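Hi all, posting the design record for the shared folder.

TITLE: backbone redesign
STEP: 1 of 1
STRUCTURE INPUT:
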């Protein structure tokens, strides 16, 4: 079942705010929360998606454009990897690793939130094009 294209973009905006706060505060706990959100999003259970469906979408009207859920879920899995590396950096060191991995995740989230360009989604589509398909 396809999803409202505005949902992942809303999630990216919230993720952007969370990751900015992580970089400003250095909070491993806040990054742990975002890591959990990425894991849930990769499983198709994003809390930000739930918030969008329950609170935001009723106020902005029905969707007019849809997309398959696989590319955004893959993007969440990529975010999970970067957040997990960042969590290791913030928790065990070196701190620069935490900041760098969080900064990269932030850059990707910001691109989606501000411009609707999902790096993880594009990676998914590229992988689908170059991987041989067996039927």
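Okay, here is what came back for every position:
SEQUENCE:
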């Amino acid at each position: 079942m396809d999803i409202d294209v505005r949902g992942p973009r809303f999630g990216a905006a919230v993720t952007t705010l969370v990751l900015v706060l992580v970089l400003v505060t250095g909070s491993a706990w806040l990054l742990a929360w975002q890591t959990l959100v990425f894991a849930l999003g990769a499983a198709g259970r994003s809390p930000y998606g739930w918030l969008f469906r329950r609170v935001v979408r009723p106020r902005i009207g029905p969707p007019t454009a849809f997309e398959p859920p696989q590319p955004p879920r893959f993007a969440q899995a990529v975010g999970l990897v970067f957040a997990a590396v960042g969590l290791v950096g913030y928790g065990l060191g070196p701190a620069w690793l935490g900041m760098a991995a969080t900064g990269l995740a932030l850059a990707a989230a910001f691109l989606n939130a501000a411009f609707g360009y999902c790096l993880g989604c594009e990676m998914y589509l590229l992988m689908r094009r170059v991987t041989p398909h067996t039927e």
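COMMENT: Helices lie at 6-25, 28-42, 47-60, 70-92, 95-115, 119-130.
Let me know if anyone wants the other runs.
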